[in-house]
Every structure is written in C-alpha cells, then in structure tokens.
Design a protein that fits this description.
Layout (H helix, E strand, L loop, with lengths): L1 E8 L2 H8 L9 H8 L2 H15 L5 E4 L1 H6 L1 H9 L3 E4 L10 H10 L1 H7 L3 E2 L11 H4 L6 E2 L3 E2 L4 E3 L2 E3 L2 E2 L1 E2 L16 H4 L2 E2 L7 H4 L3 H10 L5 E5 H4 L3 H4 L1 H10 L11 H10 L1 E3 L1 H5 L2
Length: 279
C-alpha cells in the first residue's frame, strides 16, 4: 500500500529561531541566507538522491524565502518528479488571516511560478476558519493538523492530517484545526507521522505504518530537511542544551535520524499528496 511522505524544506536557521522561541522576523531574509551558507542545495541533493535510490516520491513543503534564495534547487525537486507545496514565506506561526495573507503575498512569486496546490502551516497549526483564504491562492489541500487518515473538507479545501494512533482502542477525535502538538494531544495519541517522533520511535516507525495499512489507511508522514541531513549547528552540544531548556518539546529534533530514515524508505512505498489524491 502506498503512503505519503513529505519534507518541510526549511533551513536549520529557521529551526534555530523557532526552537529558541525567537521571532522569525528577528533577522532579515538576506541574513538568514548568509547563515545558511549553501546548506539548502547540498542537503536537498542528498535527500533527492536518497529518495531516488529507494524509488520513492514525496511532497516538499517549501518556505517561500528559500525559493528566493535558491530557485534552481526548488525547480530541481520538481524536475526529479516530486511535488512542490507551500510552507509560508518565513515560517511564522499563522494566528490570523492578516498573518496568513502577508505570508502568502510575500510568497507570490513562488506560488505563481511553481503553482503549488498543497499548503502546510508552520508547527502544523492552522485554524479552521482560515481555510477559506487558501482557495484564493489556488490551493486544493492543507496538511496542517494531526489525526487519522480521513480527509475532511472545509470551505472547499481538503484537510489531510498527519498520522496519529490512539493509545486506547477506538476512534480518534474528529479531525479539526488546530490539532497540533500539545501535551494534551500527546497524552492520548502518538503522532507517529510527525518529524518529532521519528527520532523517538526510530526503527519502530514502520510498525505503526503497517498497523495503519492493515486497516486500509495510508500513513501520512513528514520530516524536516535539517533532520535528514543534520548540520553541525543543530547537533552541537551547546545548541542542544539551549533547546532543552528553552523548548524541551523540540529536543528530539536535535537527534540524528539518518539510519531510521533509510530503513523507513527501504521498507515502505511512498508517494506525494498530489499523486495520491489529485493525479
């Protein structure tokens, strides 16, 4: 059975700001690119080669300012058969329609040239009443909440949740927005599709996929680019300690997932959102 695999295409610079609870506008886009120092093209090439080696397709949710920095890198993803989707412009948390509109307007060049039909809000946090605004920019679906694999539709936009499994038998709560990573959610279900849980579950991740597939459900997973190809700026002990104290829920993101990722891609069949639902 085919499942969905996606990558949030962000720089480690974006993660550093969010993990330490810094404003994404704290430094300019040009300063972020300077700090990135060519990381995005190299890491993307590594991940594309890994996907090709295992004959897998995926959806890349791209930060708009990364398209401004490295347009050829983003275009190369599409050229190699993967879906390009939108992950806002600067990775700002979307709390209201003004922020959403601002982020999408800044991403207009990316949206017009790459024509993404998919959207994922940063932190997998998106309010249901904002769904109607996505249609104005040509989006068909969002994957900005956690839940089972049931696709729901709000204001003409499909919501395709990142996979979770409940601790107790029975159905999960109704898919809705926002259903993001909170201690309340973690107290009743395991969001095995989250990039946060691959470093925790490691080689056990395929077992959760198998359970979903036995029920006839595709698993929906995502990771971040900087998890697949971890730079020294994230694995550095000093930075990891800062994250532990500033934002402990983000601490597992600083663990290397190279081996469990390779195992995952070799054991299961993956495709993109667009290929599964809109081809």
């Amino acid at each position: 059975m085919q499942n969905i695999f996606s990558i949030d295409l962000e720089s480690w610079v974006h993660f550093r700001l969010s993990a330490l609870k810094k404003d994404p506008y704290l430094i300019s886009s040009s300063e972020k690119k300077k700090l990135d120092a060519g990381y995005i093209p190299k890491a993307t090439e590594y991940l594309l080669d890994l996907l090709e080696k295992n004959n897998q397709k995926a959806t890349f949710f791209v930060i708009g300012e990364i398209y401004d920095w490295y347009p050829e890198t983003v275009k190369s993803i599409a050229e190699r058969g993967h879906e390009i989707a939108c992950h806002t412009y600067s990775h700002a948390q979307i709390e209201d329609k003004e922020t959403l509109h601002d982020e999408l307007e800044k991403s207009k060049r990316f949206i017009e040239e790459m024509k993404p039909v998919g959207f994922r809000a940063p932190y997998v946090y998106f309010k249901r009443d904002l769904m109607k605004h996505l249609k104005e920019y040509g989006f068909k679906y969002s994957s900005s909440t956690y839940g089972d694999s049931k696709v729901s539709n709000h204001a003409g936009i499909d919501e395709i949740p990142v996979s979770t499994v409940p601790f107790k038998r029975g159905s999960l709560p109704e898919n809705g927005s926002p259903r993001h990573l909170t201690f309340k959610l973690l107290s009743r279900e395991i969001p095995f599709g989250s990039g946060l849980f691959m470093p925790i579950l490691r080689s056990r991740t395929p077992k959760f996929i198998e359970k979903a597939n036995k029920k006839g459900k595709p698993a929906v997973l995502f990771i971040h680019l900087w998890q697949a190809c971890m730079p020294k700026e994230i694995s550095n002990p000093s930075f990891r300690l800062k994250v532990l104290f500033a934002n402990p829920l983000c601490f597992p993101y600083t663990w290397n997932i190279q081996k469990p990722l390779e195992l995952l891609l070799s054991r299961h069949s993956f495709t993109s959102f667009k290929e599964m639902y809109y081809s």
